[in-house]
Amino acid sequence: MPKILDGKKLAQEIELTLQQTIESGLEVAERPPGLAVLRVGNDPASGVYVNYKEKACDRIGVRSFAKHLKEDISLEELRETIKTLNQEKNVDGILLQLPLPSHLDEATLLRSIDPDKDADGLHPLNLGRLIKGEKGPRSCTPAGVMSLLKRNQIKIEGKRAVVIGRSILVGKPMALMLEAANATVTVAHSRTTDLPSLTREADLLVVAAGKPYLIGKNHVSENCVVIDVGIHRLPTGQENMNELKKTKLCGDVKMFEIEDKVAAYSPVPGGVGPMTVTMLLANTVDRWQKHCGLPLTISHLLP
Ligand code: NAD
Predict the structure, then answer these.
(1) What is the C-alpha separation between 54 and 16, in angstroms, rounded?
(2) Which CATH class is domain 26-135+276-297?
(3) What's the mean pLDDT in 113-127?
(4) Catalytic residue at 260?
(5) What's the pLDDT score for residue 45?
(6) For atom 30 of ligand 1, which residue has the closest CA?
(7) 185 close to 178: Cβ distance less than 8 angstroms
(8) N or C, which end of the chain has less CB nearby within 10 Å?
């Protein structure tokens, strides 16, 4: 039977550690950690993710400075908002929820976040640190994947890893983190030809293509470890498609086709998703310890 890489359970364990870390540092720090998640406009999926993040902050004692900004906010106004949060001493982490409305330049805005408060590790300085193997905040989703692999004692060193997807948010930092852990990494993308023969060579396959059910039994070999990053809401039938509750979640992988073939896999939901939120909290608590001059006790939770 394949091993199920249970992100929900691991996320709960890490949250407990973070909660205890906050409690034990509060007296010296004289304030809780603070996280500002910025949501722009009314993308419903972003609304759901921001909501998860706010609830997670509440659960462990992180103060939320979440802001919901209007769809037509100008680049300058949004930069000013970020600048104010950069200077706010109670804020340790800032996350700009992507995607943004099309009139806003993502790169400019990510660059305007203080690299020291960059809770999703997407500032060019922190991406550069990742390339060089230097310490710094890491992108939450790939960091969550690394944590899930480590906790389940999945060996990475010397393994052939294939990452499907080359986005700045997931695929690229994922490939760099696996390479830093001594895997031999190949990155596949939308122009890759003959994907199945490439992925069948993989000991470890990370799928972040954003295409529901892209990967099936012809793409994997036996004993492969499969991480499904994709998350999609598919309509369940007759219901109103505008209502998110009447949809079901699926990933980029047809798990029902491969679950008897592979060595281990991460489910959707309950795999990478909860780990992403938890790594956001871990980055924030780590920044808080740094900003408040506390000992850095949770570095081992971060890649
Ligand atoms: P993206 O659209 O920015 O990038 C997708 C990448 O996949 C691109 O590099 C593209 O070249 C590649 N790709 C697309 N079709 C392909 C194909 N047929 N074959 C090979 N490569 C292909 O998406 P993203 O932001 O990287 O996110 C990817 C997926 O992960 C999405 O489903 C997203 O919702 C999900 N996601 C999940 C979490 C989580 O917490 N679980 C977090 C972030 C993103």
Answers:
(1) 16
(2) alpha beta
(3) 98
(4) no
(5) 86
(6) 230
(7) yes
(8) N
Ligand 1 binding pocket includes 209 (Cβ within 6 Å): yes
Mutation to probe ligand 1, out of 163, 166, 190, 252 (largest number of atoms < 8 A from CB): 190
Q: Which of 6, 118, 120, 228 is catalytic?
A: 120
- The model scores a pTM over 0.85: yes
Do 154-266 and 26-135+276-297 have the same topology in CATH?
yes
SS3 content of the chain, % helix, strand, coil (to 5): 45, 15, 40
Determine whether 53 is an active site residue.
yes
Which CB contacts under 8 angstroms, 24+ apart, belong to 185-193?
Answer: 185/161, 186/160, 186/161, 186/162, 187/162, 187/163, 188/162, 188/163, 188/164, 189/164, 189/165
Cα 31 → chain centroid: 26
What is the H or E stretch that residue 265 is in? strand 264-265
Q: What is the CB neighbour count within 10 angstroms for residue 13?
A: 11
Res. 245: pLDDT tops 70: no
Average pLDDT over residues 215-230: 97
The residue that leads in pLDDT, 1 or 30, is: 30
Q: Which residue, judged by its Cα, is nearest atom 35 of ligand 1?
A: 230
Does ligand 1 come within 6 angstroms of the Cβ of 148? Answer: no
d(C-alpha 262, C-alpha 182), whole Å: 22
Whether 215 shows a pLDDT value over 50: the answer reads: yes
> Candidates 3.40.50.150, 3.40.50.1860, 3.40.50.300, 3.40.50.720; correct CATH number of 154-266?
3.40.50.720
Q: What is the pLDDT of residue 247?
A: 76
**Alpha-carbon gap, residue 83 to 158, rounded angstroms:** 43
* Residue listed under structure tokens 């073939």: 261
Q: How much is the pLDDT for 235?
A: 80
